[in-house]
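quick one before i forget lol
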Amino acid sequence: MWIAASVLSAFFAGITAILAKCAIKRTDSDVATAIRTAVVLVFSLLMVLITGSFGEICNISARSVLFLVLSGLSTGASWLCYFKALSMGDVNKVVPIDKSSTIISVLFAIIIFQETNNLLIKLLGTVLLAAGIFLMVEKTKSQHSNVKRRWIMYAVLSALFAALTSILAKIGIENVESNLATAIRTCVVLIMAWLIVFLKGKQRQLHTITRKELFYICISGIATGASWLCYYYAIQNGLVSIVVPIDKLSIVVSIIFSYIVFKEKLSKKAFVGLILMISGTLLMTIFA
């Protein structure tokens, strides 16, 4: 079940990147992130009510709350960087860098959680992932100015915070129902996202969002919520070193739809990189 949940998480995460790109053509990325997080929270709370896990909130330990809050803060930072990068660069170039968080997460899982079963296979899969990411990250003609290159910095920061999120969440979600844990984390992300909006004075831009982009923001929020619920269920019940790579296969979904929607094509080099990333993930999954 946790492997199936990981696959669903990857699918919904892949769709999220495309919907988010559609939503931030004119809308500021920070504002879009804040609205999207509100949608995710509503979605998460509905799942908590459906599963009847709200009553368990009184039984959560202080340690779990601390790590869930830290995980939420890390997620918020990752999101803000990720959607800023998407607003500035191509989907098929931003996503591979963001997915490099897989390498850090797998190594942390091996060291911190002692997930050393089939260690050589995991390390080989990680090497394939790293090689694939390296091949997929290409320079474009538009990157001659420092302004155009800034998306790389945001994408790298997104990956670092995303890796930290997985580790903190694994610790915090222990003995906590996954839907309830997701809702708690989302509350933290929501507060952080709106603080950023108000601190930067961007709240006035809420009135300028078109109905079309607001629709895409809301739909991307629902897709994100579905991805999170599946992901943290898998994290709670499975191996971090396997769940994270499967989840990062969302890159396949993102690239397919980026070609269909935005006509963003992969070069031969990038395509080889994609195959290496898929191979590394499947290798770790099959021999889990």
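fyi Residues 62-88 form the longest helix (27 residues).
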